[in-house]
């Protein structure tokens, strides 16, 4: 199956039309021949019809130059290097698609919100900002846009119901604010070959008294981490000294995502609820019945510094120090991501599926000669405070956002590009390159059934009912850019040993509340902004049902595992 052709070949095919691309459909046909082929949920006639619609809708904007921005991952690199030039050739709208760091994307967006200056005509940024955009009302509601100023440039074949992540980009007012462009989850990663080896299984059972398998809880994860750390795996072609865990700990913005990306709810912090805990979410922020944030510390009904949160941070630090390559303590998210594929790591609880494409390259020590991986991915285990119905993992949903400060005509042209790169014509091919799914029809495409055995469980996960328990940051967070930076700074103090986990989380919740109080006093978010509870004796909240919770007498629970193949059967 051909998955990738070069941008050069495609560009030559487009140039061969020798006609202004926006004058006819020849450039579109050349693009389909060179780049899409059968990797689409649409047949060729439907592909041409969809691209003809883009050609016609773009005519008023031919010759316009627009700028859009996203973070640098494989999916967006493909958009910038292949799809943007194709869109330009087909429509006559010149797109510059900038690729910058995720933190830089948020910074540019924040600057545009603060100054009103139109820095970019559209942004792909995490749906984690949904609470920010809903409350500040500086991003266009796409619901209103598609019915009003964007109606003439909204693809009749957009099919919003086909997008699997729109519930994460819809606010409590029922309005859709963002269009998903790429989506990936954080899951459990492990060496399937090591876990299924008879000697390894026998040695594990002899030591711990239960079967080696996918850990269901953190107690089992910890036993497996201890078992593999320092173990000589050379009898399986592995290292003479393996590691039982992989993570990262550098005081860097990505350290904040490590925790706000659902680590705390995996431990059992917050309340039950889908897609996020309610009224207390996985940041520990409580909202009232009107979705107004009322507190973060236990004294105001929040759980950012409760016993489950302290347990979450304590365990992460303990495992980083005991069972992880020492250099990981100085690594960022991006630096740590490829390490398991180097062949010395047995498992990783907090592994982003965005690294799948880089982990299935044929020359890696974690790949078999037949192109199948020696590893698999599965749902992450949960901590001792977790209970049924709580969120158990994070799903990143990079989403197209149109700011109100962008002139209407530029927003219309950018909206055409956003729909082109998520269209049914191109989405299957794009998903094969980046493995970041946003459409149900793409996930179910026959080409992914064919490719599934080479992707370590990714397709099985996305086709399973389990995926609904993975979700991004929800609407409890009224200012993601300001509050997210507090996490890496305070958690970093715990990582370095400058503060205990309790001290770091006490400081964090107090700083979060200062941000909430400033927003409340400013009045800028009106009657959907924070309305803070008065502090009271924390015991009042600890005695009440739900989050926050008091410390358990025993934070060690009976370890539980499940065979991976049994787990997959339960999804089918």
In the CATH scheme, what's the topology name of the largest domain? D-Maltodextrin-Binding Protein, domain 2
Helix content: 40-55%
% residues in beta strands: 5-15%
Low-confidence region ranges: 1-5, 15-23
Sheet of most strands: 7 strands, mixed
Number of domains: 2
Radius of gyration: 24 Å
| Annotation field: number of helices | 24
What is the CATH homology-level superfamily of the largest domain? Periplasmic binding protein-like II
For this structure, the quaternary state is single chain
Name the CATH architecture of the largest domain. Answer: 3-Layer(aba) Sandwich
Tertiary shape: globular
What is the CATH C-level name of the largest domain? Alpha Beta
What is the mean pLDDT? 94
Q: What's the N-to-C terminus distance?
A: 26 Å
Total strands = 11
Q: Could you say which structural class the secondary elements and strand pairing correspond to?
A: alpha+beta
Keywords, separated by commas or semicolons:
seven-stranded mixed β-sheet, D-Maltodextrin-Binding Protein, domain 2, disordered N terminus, 572 residues, alpha+beta, two-stranded antiparallel sheet
List the helices and strands and how they pair.
Layout: H1 7-15, H2 26-36, H3 44-58, E1 65-71, H4 74-91, E2 94-100, H5 102-115, E3 122-126, H6 130-136, H7 142-147, E4 179-191, H8 192-195, H9 198-208, E5 214-215, H10 218-228, H11 253-260, H12 263-267, E6 286-287, E7 293-295, H13 307-323, H14 333-336, E8 347-352, H15 356-359, E9 375-378, E10 395-401, H16 408-421, H17 424-434, H18 440-443, H19 446-451, H20 458-462, H21 480-496, H22 501-522, H23 538-543, E11 561-562, H24 564-571
Parallel strand pairs: 1-2, 1-3
Antiparallel strand pairs: 3-10, 4-8, 4-9, 4-10, 5-11, 6-7
